[in-house]
Design a protein that fits this description.
The structure holds two protein chains of two kinds. Chain A is α/β, with parallel strands linked by helices. Chain A has ten helices and 25 strands. Chain A has three domains: 2-109 and 245-311, FAD/NAD(P)-binding domain (3-Layer(bba) Sandwich), CATH 3.50.50; 112-242, 3-Layer(bba) Sandwich (FAD/NAD(P)-binding domain), CATH 3.50.50; 330-424, 2-Layer Sandwich (Enolase-like, domain 1), CATH 3.30.390.30. In chain A, the strands form six sheets. In chain A, strands 1, 2, 3, 4, 5, 6 and 18 form a seven-stranded mixed sheet that branches. Chain A has a five-stranded parallel sheet with strand order 8-15-9-10-11, covered by helices on one side. Chain A is globular. Chain B has helices at residues 16-24, 31-37, 67-71, 98-102, 130-134, and strands spanning 3-6, 47-51, 54-58, 77-79, 86-88, 109-111, 116-118, 140-143. In chain B, strands 1-8 form a two-stranded antiparallel sheet. A two-stranded antiparallel sheet of chain B has the order 2-3. Chain B has a two-stranded antiparallel sheet with strand order 4-5. The chains are: A alpha/beta, B alpha+beta. The interface between A and B is large, with 44 and 46 residues. The complex binds flavin-adenine dinucleotide and iron/sulfur cluster (2 copies). The site of one iron/sulfur cluster has 15 residues of chain B, from helix 4.
Chain lengths: 435, 148
């Protein structure tokens, strides 16, 4: 039986975060990554960017083609892991092969949700998910013959797909069950700004409703909404999110809630088995509990922390929380932390909207620290706010300044500024003494 | 990490580092041609903050565990383990601005015209960074040490 010191299931960003860290410290240990998809590691987050193009796979690659070779990693691609024996430290592949491991990382990601609606079946020729390269290839084959498209889901991915399809010249309708788009991510005002940007551009948004049924046989010809509206379509894109892929972990007897449960060292309930990314539930430092955070940086950082602990270098993942950079038409938006919480939940909310520039800033504060922020249009240097939030810095003394467009380190009181910059070597020690 | 370190107490806020950064990243490398004839003109990769009388130039720190690399969805940002530099491959950048969200120093500059980003690349083809060379008051120091 083949054996690897480190074995990773899932060939995506979580795997890369783990591998790059493992190889920074352990040059000799054997590493293998098993991926169900046959491709070299690519970025699914690029799908909306290439929706309007017939893209070669190379455009979507997340790391260069020689990445695994250079880092001495054995890729096992186009193979699915179907069994895990944590006591024996062995996994079983769909071709019957078995591989044993020293340490195992589960980075199996998520599975697209397809709500149980009559006629909604992605086996049909023109109903597509939007999470994998194969979905993109399917959609681009359907595009030349499509004039009207309906997107189910008014979250980030559904909206990005809608914008790209609109720019291709299609007539697009988006259907969202919640009363507003992006409801779990941003406050109501921001939702309205986004809806307005779509409507102005000619994309129809239907909120507070969903499909009652999908019409047509082998080919969907239209949908009927719960409010009775009929929308004919040639293409239907299902983008209502993903659920963690936990079947393997569950069958192996690991502790699983919605996602695979991990502690702050990314260890699952089984010895030598770690998990990260979309398949796991991680500790959110703002919420103070574990939850699924299906976000790119979370998968990478989780993979990195798992790697440290696999190497025996104890590290905790204590900086995870929700965060998104997104853009729709002319709106650039960056959010992080808790943004749907408000005064009634005991938070202080400060905000400013400038009608001329259409820029909007909103901060959610509690216990003298930032718990969430949303920036629309003026997004420059947003990471400084994320930094203040992650470090739990006291901001009450300068909270009004947070709303100013020119916020920077010089807006932060001197003592705190020094602490934030000298530690990290932005300023020299000498400078600090003289300032 | 190789990086530019600042002595804000001697920075006079002249913004020449921004000017020479633009020149260094222009096609002509000539100050007049770069400012008069090149469109789109490169964006300066150093941010000089001003809250008079204080000024503070901020450059990319080439972090050991860069938050920008963690967040970059395209792989355009990566850390070269041999040099310790954090590199940006503009061809692969899709302008998602996840790195703007992630960088703790606000050192990622938005290049809206090209819908890409720019960060201090330490003028890697030129030896010493142009801003360090041109700062009239020696407020910028190039620190070339590399620890993994
Ligand atoms: C269209 C789209 C756009 C997005 N845009 C953004 C964005 O802008 N910003 C952001 O933060 N996030 C974004 N995301 C979310 C982000 O892509 C995910 O959070 C990220 O990909 C999670 O990485 P991961 O490594 O956990 O797993 P995944 O990327 O989901 O990969 C898991 C891999 O494991 C494989 N696998 C699963 N089970 C097995 C098995 N048993 N055997 C073998 N292989 C297996 C799967 O086939 C898959 O290839 C986007 C997602 C989509 C779909
Ligand atoms: S851009 Fe920011 S996060 Fe990235 S290496 Fe530079 S300073 Fe660090
Ligand atoms: S803007 Fe470019 S460099 Fe920055 S995260 Fe997005 S793709 Fe990467």
């Amino acid at each position: 039986m083949e054996r690897f010191d480190y074995l990773i299931i899932g060939n995506s960003v979580g795997a890369v975060g783990c591998i790059e860290t493992l190889r920074s410290f352990d040059k000799g240990g054997s590493i293998a990554v098993i991926g169900e998809e046959p491709h070299h590691v690519y970025s699914r987050a690029l799908l909306p960017y290439y929706l309007d193009q017939e893209v070669p796979v190379e455009k979507m690659l997340y790391r260069p083609v020689d990445f695994y070779e250079r880092l001495g990693v054995t890729p096992v691609l186009g193979r699915r892991v179907v069994g895990l024996d944590t006591a024996g430290h062995v996994v079983k592949l769909d071709d019957g092969r078995t591989i044993s491991y020293g340490k195992l990382l589960l980075a199996t990601g998520g599975r697209p949700i397809v709500p149980p609606i009559p006629g909604l079946d992605t086996e049909k020729e023109n109903i597509c998910n939007f999470v994998a390269l194969q979905d993109l290839q399917r959609i681009s084959r359907l595009l030349p013959s499509a004039g009207r498209v309906v997107v189910l889901g008014g979250g980030i991915i559904g909206l990005m797909a809608a914008e790209a399809l609109h720019k291709k010249g299609l007539e697009v309708g988006v259907v969202e069950l919640a009363p507003r788009v992006l409801a779990p991510v941003v406050d109501e005002f921001t939702s309205r700004l986004i809806e307005e940007a779509f409507r102005r551009s000619g994309v129809a948004i239907y909120t507070g409703t969903t499909f009652k049924e999908v019409q047509g046989g082998e080919r969907a010809t239209g949908v009927v909404l719960t409010d009775g509206t009929s929308l004919p379509c040639d293409l239907l894109v299902v983008a209502v999110g993903v659920v963690p892929r936990v079947d393997l972990a569950r069958e192996a007897g690991l502790a699983v809630n919605r996602g695979i449960l991990v502690n702050q060292q990314m260890e699952t309930s089984a010895a030598d088995v770690y998990a990260c990314g979309d398949c796991a539930e991680v500790y959110d430092f703002l919420m103070g509990n574990r939850r699924v955070l299906p976000l790119w940086p979370n998968a990478y950082a989780g993979g990195r922390v798992a790697a440290y602990n696999m190497l025996g270098m104890k590290r905790e993942y204590d900086r995870a929380t929700s965060m998104n950079a997104m853009h729709f038409f002319d709106l650039n938006i960056i959010t992080a932390g808790l943004n749907t919480a408000g005064e009634k939940d005991g938070f202080e909310v400060i905000s400013r909207f400038d009608a001329g520039s259409r820029s909007y800033r909103r901060f959610v504060l509690k216990d003298d620290r930032i718990h969430g922020f949303t920036l629309v249009t003026g997004i420059a240097r947003a990471g400084i706010f994320l930094h203040l939030m992650r470090r739990g810095c006291a901001v009450t003394s300068f909270k009004e300044k947070l709303l100013e467009g020119e916020f920077g380190y010089l807006t932060i009181p001197e003592g705190l500024r020094r602490e934030l910059l000298i530690d990290e070597g932005v300023m020299s020690e000498h400078a600090a003494a003289n300032q | 990490m190789p990086r530019v370190v600042v002595k804000p107490e001697v920075c006079i806020g002249c913004h020449l580092c921004e000017v020479w950064c633009v020149v260094a990243h222009s096609r002509s490398k000539n100050i007049l041609k770069a400012f008069l004839h090149e469109t789109p003109r490169p964006v300066p990769r150093v941010v000089v903050e001003e809250n008079l009388p204080f000024t503070l130039p901020v450059h990319c720190r080439h972090c050991i565990e860069p938050s920008c690399v963690e967040a970059c969805i395209s792989g355009a940002l990566y850390r070269d383990p041999l040099t310790g530099r954090v590199e940006h491959d503009a061809d692969r950048c899709v302008g998602c601005y996840s790195c703007v969200m992630a960088c703790p120093y606000g050192a990622v500059v938005i290049d809206e015209v090209n819908r890409k980003i720019a960060r201090c690349d330490l003028c890697k083809e030129m030896g010493e960074p142009a801003c360090v060379k041109q700062c009239p008051n020696r407020a910028l120091v190039y620190q070339d040490s590399f620890t993994s």
